[in-house]
Write a structure and sequence with these properties.
Elements: H1 2-9, E1 16-19, E2 22-27, E3 30-36, H2 44-56, E4 63-65, E5 74-76, E6 79-85, H3 96-106, H4 116-137, H5 142-163, E7 173-176, H6 185-188, E8 194-197, H7 201-210, H8 218-226, H9 231-242, H10 245-255, H11 261-268, H12 270-285
Antiparallel strand pairs: 1-2, 2-3, 3-6, 4-6, 5-6, 7-8
Helix pairs in contact: 4-5, 5-9, 7-9, 9-12
Amino acid sequence: MKNVINYYYNLFPNEIHQKNKKFYFEIEKVKFVFFVYSKDFSKTQSIEKMIHILDAGNIKYNQIVKNTSGIIITYVNNNPYILLKLNEQSEDIVIFKDIIDFNKRMSGLFNEKLNIESLLRLWMDKIDYFEYQVSQFGIKFPIIRNSFNYFIGYAENAVILLKNLIYANIGIMISHHRITNNMILQELYNPLNFVLDSSVRDISEYLKEKLFFTDNIDIVEYYFKYSNITNNEAIMFFSRLLYPTYYFDICENIIDGDNDTLLKTVLQRITVYEKNIRLIYIFLKKQYNIPEIEWLLINQD
């Protein structure tokens, strides 16, 4: 791999170490990682737009290094590779404070507004897709078939809330495709994970998984106390929180061949999850004009 790095990047590391199918090296105390890019190539154009703005604003992130041909993809043995310069090297697990710090760094870089109609279509298409998958493969995956209607109920409530925002004026910022509870800081600043969305996307995605495994909502109260969230953004936050991407991701992995252990664990925590969703909704209703969702206002012990 040394010859590849020499030839395509004019970089000359002394040593290259392989770990988890990635190649790591260091030059003058600057660390790099070279790895196969397996995602949709069509997204690289929007990524390049984001990194251009980040560079202009001198914002710290893990930079994509272009090859000697001026492009970000390098083919090695017919496999597409990308080289990253690791300005954020930490492998610590991302915590709530890290997301807040990231949002502060990325705020104010874009003037465009969120295309809510496009997001609504995306969510509805996702529901239709999974309804089809369950109709075709539900017999093979009984755990999905038996839990599907429950989570589709959340998705439909999320869509109803989102419809209230069709004409809302909500700004965009750099966020992430997913933030999971095992994401490391190095990946938080990886531009290949970046997407443009509302400021509440990351915190809502981070919370979705956590709500199954925690008995308090302190970080939600903290977030809304110290963040300047508008009424429309509060509705967007709760709509995203209701939309069960976490569940959909698990189901997709099961259909693709993973075991169902994680889904079993999640289903065992439904009572905790529902309690937390209800507490967050009641908390938001006290501060914002959130549309009524009747079943969330019913007291349950």
